[in-house]
């Protein structure tokens, strides 16, 4: 049985940490919880997990935002499927869930960025999910 649920409690977040760690290896559990709480409180960040047989197999995190360019949209910050469960449709189901959520809640679209090295992810977004490559993302860290 598969279910998708929003993660709001610390124990739920810790339950999916092993999956998140595959996308964000620099995180430890305490830092993950701290960053999640800060982003949730200050930037409307939300996280959902897809469970199969009571085990988290995919996780998505996003925030709502409004821009002059796109209007009211969803920005996906994190999407990862556990490496043992990839290519089984779990990431697609979770992404479609968020796309449907965005439509139902009056958003104009869904955007994300993907690391330049993640070629399989790019193929997934472009070929399977029909996302359009529309820009480059630049960063300068301090």
UniProtKB/TrEMBL annotation:
SUPFAM superfamilies: Acyl-CoA N-acyltransferases (Nat). InterPro entries: Acyl_CoA_acyltransferase, GNAT_dom. GO terms for molecular function: acyltransferase activity, transferring groups other than amino-acyl groups. It holds the Pfam family Acetyltransf_1. Residues 2-142 form the N-acetyltransferase domain. This is GNAT superfamily N-acetyltransferase.
């Amino acid at each position: 049985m598969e279910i998708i649920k929003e993660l709001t409690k610390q124990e739920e977040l810790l339950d999916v940490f092993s999956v998140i760690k595959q996308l964000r290896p620099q995180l430890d559990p305490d830092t993950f919880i701290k960053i999640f709480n800060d982003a949730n409180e200050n930037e409307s960040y939300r996280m959902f997990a897809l469970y199969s047989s009571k085990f988290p197999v995919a996780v998505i995190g996003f925030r709502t935002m409004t821009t002059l360019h796109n209007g009211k949209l969803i920005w996906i910050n994190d999407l990862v499927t556990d490496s043992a469960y990839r290519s089984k449709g779990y990431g697609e189901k979770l992404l479609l869930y968020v796309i449907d959520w965005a439509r139902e809640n009056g958003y104009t679209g869904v955007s994300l960025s993907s690391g330049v090295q993640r070629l399989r992810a790019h193929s997934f977004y472009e070929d399977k999910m029909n996302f359009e490559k529309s820009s480059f993302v630049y960063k300068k860290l301090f």
